[in-house]
Specification:
8 helices, alpha/beta, Rossmann fold, about 30% helix, globular, about 325 residues, about 25% strand, 2 domains
């Protein structure tokens, strides 16, 4: 017997299209709520239907404006708790502030931990997220957290392209494990680019390529694209070292500022991203392919609701829908 009356999936203002796609996978309608700001810039949330003892899922990637969408999420959690929800799961496809996961400079905050504390304090019972910037963020929560991996979705897109002489490239040492996993999936070698970040700015310099990319098709794999500077510099370094084509696969398309122009004007042949974050129409560009994570999140929600293993989704690729 189910532990709760049923599933209710709500959306904040960050990415309602993704919520609709998740609900389509689950064959349910999005639950009704209203989330808006008063003239004094304060956020208001109201649940528009009965959720007493229901299994509630609140879908809200922490996209731009980051702080506004964070506040929406916290208030949505509090509203659901005060409406006597049976269980509240914060579905956060993109977890912002993930880069500040440690004290790497004197007198700085560990903001990723602070955000985790606020989510817990607001009243969330568990968290569902995707491809965290750093694995230790899981330990910042004292409530259950499920981290999904979109790498298989990206890998499948490149399997379909039937690319020969493929090599997976990590744009920096930090992305090496993710690149290794992708290389194993595609049964190909990997390389790593050494890069240097200048201070706290978004300016990067690719200094060296570790591995043989000459006459190969390179696939740069990373967790997120922000300004596009790192990926563009990596792609240029790869072509300089003899790569005949360069592709890019990224989970989270932040696309800050003129990132879309930077990528469009780079040597990249194609960039594959997921829809964990909304991409405004004006930031779509030729060579950009968007893969949906709705079925992945929807299947995880179904399993959480039914008390089934989420990890089993990745053991034998049980997700076939």
């Amino acid at each position: 017997m189910p532990l709760f009356n049923g599933i209710k999936v709500f959306s904040g203002n960050a990415h309602p299209a993704l919520t609709r796609d998740i609900c389509s996978y689950l064959d349910i309608k999005p639950a009704r709520n209203e989330v808006f700001k008063f003239s004094n810039d304060e956020t208001f949330v109201r649940v528009l239907e009965n959720i007493r003892e229901e299994d509630v899922f609140l879908v809200q990637p922490i996209s731009k404006p980051v702080n506004e969408h964070l506040m929406e999420l916290w208030i949505m959690i509090d509203a659901a708790r005060r409406a006597s929800a049976g269980r509240i799961t914060a579905v956060i496809p993109y977890y912002a502030y993930g880069r500040t996961d440690k004290k790497d400079q004197p007198r700085v905050a560990i903001t990723a931990r602070l955000v985790a504390d606020f989510i817990t304090a607001a009243g969330a019972d568990r968290v569902l997220t995707m491809n965290l910037h750093a694995g230790q963020i899981q330990g910042f929560f004292n409530i259950p957290l499920d981290e999904l991996d979109a790498t298989d979705l990206i890998a499948e897109q490149f399997r379909l392209k039937n690319l020969e002489d493929l090599i997976v490239v990590a744009p920096d040492v930090g992305a090496a494990k993710m690149a290794r996993d992708m290389a194993d999936r595609l049964n190909c070698p990997m390389a790593i680019i050494e890069k240097q970040r200048i201070g706290n700015s978004d300016t990067v310099k690719a200094t060296n390529v570790i591995g043989d990319v000459k006459n190969k098709i390179a696939l740069i794999l990373d967790g997120e694209i922000d300004t596009g500077g790192s990926v563009s510099a990596a792609a240029k370094a790869l072509t300089t070292h003899g790569a005949k084509k360069v592709y890019c696969g990224v989970v989270h398309p932040i696309l800050s500022g003129d990132a879309h122009k930077t990528l469009a004007n780079s040597v990249l042949n194609e960039t594959v991203v997921t829809d964990t974050l909304p991409i405004p129409k004006e930031k779509l560009f030729p060579g950009l392919q968007v893969v949906s994570v709705a079925s992945l999140l929807g299947e995880a929600i179904r399993r959480i609701h039914n008390g089934m293993s989420v990890g089993a989704m990745f053991e034998r690729k049980e997700l076939n829908r």
